[in-house]
Amino acid sequence: MSITDWPVDDRPREKLLNKGPYALSDAELLAIFLRTGTRGKSAVDLARALLTRFGSLSALSAADARHLCGQPGIGPAKYAQLQAVMEMARRALREQIAHGSALNSAAAARDYLRLKLAGLPHEIFVAVFLDAQHRVLAIEDLFRGTLTQTSVYPREVVKRALDHNAGAVIFAHNHPSGVAEPSHADEALTQALKQALALIDVRVLDHFIVAGNGMLSLAERGLL
To answer: Does the global pTM surpass 0.90?
Structure first.
């Protein structure tokens, strides 16, 4: 059945306009982006199939052009539009981080890190440098690794903290495996960074691990 044959209140676009975007499922939001389905499938059916294929919205948005454009209903134009939407979201969060209060900046930084790292096929280690009032000074991709490990050098992290005159830092990296649990290497690295940065009076506030739609805080786990 075509979406135009659905009751008006059930159609994704009308539902969004009447109830707001938070009322929609992932498949309904994606269906609005797709606009049309394929032969025998509505846009919602196609959206559900894509989410099943990739596992989540974050994994779908992080898929490369070769994998995504090979799916029914997705071509180069749709791929380009999706990348533009995701980049606008990331830039909006960066603006919020740059111009918000210290508390709001920290919350926005967490959201930004989840959006930035979720679904990537390789590991990236990110540092968020903050001033003494915990306002964000800079966000940098410090190291990039393979599917299994990233080489992180505390000396380089200390150097970047000094360059920014930081008073605190938040770290984050992703687990492409989809498992957010910290490894022994993650815990050891966090302690090594904490000790190295303590020598220059820079506090490590947290270390986030992003995996799929999940985000784990080592500080909340008592591992800092």
So the answer is: no
Query: Helix 102-117 and helix 76-99: axis angle, to 10°?
Result: 160
Whose tokens are 């974050």? That residue is 58
Taking only the tens place, the pLDDT of each residue in 17-76 is 888 888 888 888 888 888 887 777 888 888 888 888 888 887 788 788 888 888 887 888
Residues 207, 49: Cα–Cα separation, whole Å: 34
For 53, the token pair is: 């294929």
Q: How far apart are CA 171 and CA 166, in angstroms?
A: 13
Answer for the pair 191, 155: CB distance below 8 angstroms, yes or no.
Answer: no
C-beta of residue 176 within 8 angstroms of C-beta of residue 145: no
What residues are paired with 159 via a beta bridge? none
CB-CB contact of 135 with 105 (8 Å) = yes
- The string of pLDDT tens digits covering residues 92-149 is 777 766 665 554 556 677 778 887 887 777 889 999 999 988 888 888 999 887 655 5
Backbone dihedral angles phi then psi of residue 211, each to the nearest 5 degrees:
-145, 115
Residue 168, token pair as written in the block: 């605190």
Widest CA span of the chain, in angstroms?
66
